[in-house]
Amino acid sequence: MTAGTAAHERERIRADIGQRVRRWPRSPVFYGIVVGALAVIVGEYLGVSPPAAYGLCSACHGRDLADWIINHTEGKNLFVTGAGVGWPVLTVVGLVVGSFVAARRNGEFSSINLGANVRQFGFGAVVMGAALFVGGCPTRIIIRTGYGDLAGLIALFGVAAGIVMATLSMRWVARR
Amino acid sequence: MIVSISSLALGVIVGYLGQRSRMCSIGGVRDYVLVRDTGLLKGAAALLVTSWVGFGIVRLISGSDIGHGLIAAGTTPSGVGAVVAILVGAIVLGVFATLSGACPLRQHVLAGQGRIGAWAFLAGFYLAAVVYTSWISPSIGSWVL
Questions:
Q1: For helices A150-175 and A138-147, angle between their N-to-C axes, nearest 10 degrees
Q2: For B43-71, what is each residue's pLDDT tens digit?
Q3: Do A125 and B20 touch (CB under 8 A)?
Q4: Which residues of A touch B23 (CB under 8 A)?
């Protein structure tokens, strides 16, 4: 084997590895590992902490941001968790921005209107009420269960039961 | 100030990965029930296992006590009423999140992707947050944060 073909082989392997690494963000398992690790690090060491296991939550952080804005513009005194009292928690803004950047970079951004927007508005209101009642959106319920939270584990089982019920009833309606 | 910076950076990373992987924490169970597809369920399991291991490592580093056994201290519901309340709330959350099509985090991602229905969902979401903390939460109290 000459040096030229060896270099060629190495180049091919490097390109192959590069392609595999570039496919990682498409994998839900990669998402789970990265987000779990980041949520622990941010929640424990980077300040988003007074409630335990508070690193990532779309419902609680959204509540903190909305209440912080109302407190500072209207002078009310709504409940904000210890993490978001001084400076606001901006996770929800980052979520929308990050997804927008990803969609624009990969040519997937398009304004789609599937209809039933009033229904979605009502669903959003009910979901936020229920999420604040049980203490977090489904993602934070999973993270809390990982923290060792018994209430989070109970809520995880409840959410799974609710998803099964809704899915089966939707399938039943569609099949009639 | 560190709170704003770190949470914004975390949000951008999670939003980017969430858009690429189409991850949804309720979609796993839904896809499994409908078509026996376990892709998203594996993602949710990876999130659970990683956060469990991560908090274990944090406790090892800081040397703090885990509580009693595997359950963290101060998280046990106060009684049967609290357990039933959490279960009912969680079932309502699961049912309505499934009917709306995605979990709240996925709705933020869909909003960034340009879905109009997701913006309608978010409008109801934040309106309900203010309404809940203004009127509902003071009158019913809270079992868990």
A1: 140
A2: 999 999 999 999 888 888 877 665 545 67
A3: no
A4: 28, 31-32
